[in-house]
């Protein structure tokens, strides 16, 4: 995948992610609609490829206004990733040299790898995750499961222990996927399915789209470093 193709695909995926988010807020309070209606229109323009650099900057500005409106990234990591992708996209359009443009896109790829590795590291140093108790508590007590019937999984600690270790080992090993295009493709598909499972089980749908938007940067970067 060429640099231009990867940037364009990132714009499309991020625009679609923001379209979904903005549609959810159009029935909200007036101050939210005043922020999300222009965000909706700008997201459509980003998908269409109309003045992508300017649109990315405007979306970044709106993202900062949303941080103020909700006293921070109200959707946590998904909002942070969206702002990171927007910042890097803006730099790919307005950085003064081709090297800095590519470095900005490469930074997004590096942050994507770190997001998985650090997530695994935080879990594996936590005794509750190593013992399998963390997922038991999530299913038993948290507000995340989208169906009450899923809370029954809390009664299956061995299954949740295995699931927890599978997630931790995958996240910790994610940087190794960069050694070959096939291993990277497998890792990205696996990661996307992981986010999809979280969307189905816990309603964390925004994480799926925000992280997918960063995948083209990593695919391009791997080809750039290991042609």
**Helical segment tally?**
11
Shape: globular
Report the end-to-end length measured between terminal Cα atoms.
11 Å
Number of domains: 1
Question: What characterizes the major β-sheet?
Answer: none
Number of strands: 0
Helix content: over 70%
Structural class by sheet pairing and helices = mainly alpha
- List low-pLDDT spans: none
Q: Approximately what portion of the residues adopt beta-strand conformation?
A: under 5%
Mean pLDDT: 88
Report a brief summary of the structure:
The protein is mainly α. The protein has helices spanning 3-25, 30-48, 52-69, 77-94, 98-124, 127-131, 133-141, 157-173, 181-202, 205-212, 215-225. The radius of gyration is 19 Å and the shape is globular.
Explain this structure.
The chain has 227 residues and is mainly alpha-helical. It has one domain (3-225). Helix content is 78%, strand content 0%. It has eleven helices and no strands. The protein has helices at residues 3-25, 30-48, 52-69, 77-94, 98-124, 127-131, 133-141, 157-173, 181-202, 205-212, 215-225. The protein is globular.
Record keyword descriptors for this entry.
0% strand, 227 residues, globular, mainly alpha, 11 helices
């Amino acid at each position: 995948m060429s640099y231009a193709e990867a940037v364009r695909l990132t714009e499309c995926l991020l625009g679609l992610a923001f379209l979904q988010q903005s549609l959810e807020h159009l029935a909200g309070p007036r101050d939210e609609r005043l922020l999300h209606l222009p965000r909706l229109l700008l997201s459509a323009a980003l998908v269409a490829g109309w003045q992508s650099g300017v649109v990315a900057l405007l979306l970044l500005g709106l993202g900062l206004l949303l941080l103020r409106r909700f006293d921070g990234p109200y959707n946590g990591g998904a909002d942070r990733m969206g702002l990171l992708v927007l910042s890097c996209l803006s730099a790919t359009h307005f950085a003064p040299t081709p090297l800095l443009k590519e470095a900005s896109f490469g930074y997004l790829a590096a942050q994507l790898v770190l997001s998985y590795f650090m997530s695994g590291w935080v879990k594996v140093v936590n005794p509750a995750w190593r013992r399998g108790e963390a997922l038991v508590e999530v299913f038993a007590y948290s507000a995340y499961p989208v169906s009450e019937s899923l809370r029954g999984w809390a009664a299956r600690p061995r299954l949740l222990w295995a699931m927890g270790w599978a997630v931790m080992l995958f996240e910790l090993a994610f940087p190794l996927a960069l050694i070959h295009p096939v291993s990277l493709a497998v890792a990205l598909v696996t990661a996307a399915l992981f986010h999809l499972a979280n969307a189905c089980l816990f309603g964390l749908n925004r994480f799926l789209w925000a992280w997918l938007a960063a995948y083209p940067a990593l695919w391009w970067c791997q080809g750039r470093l290991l042609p």
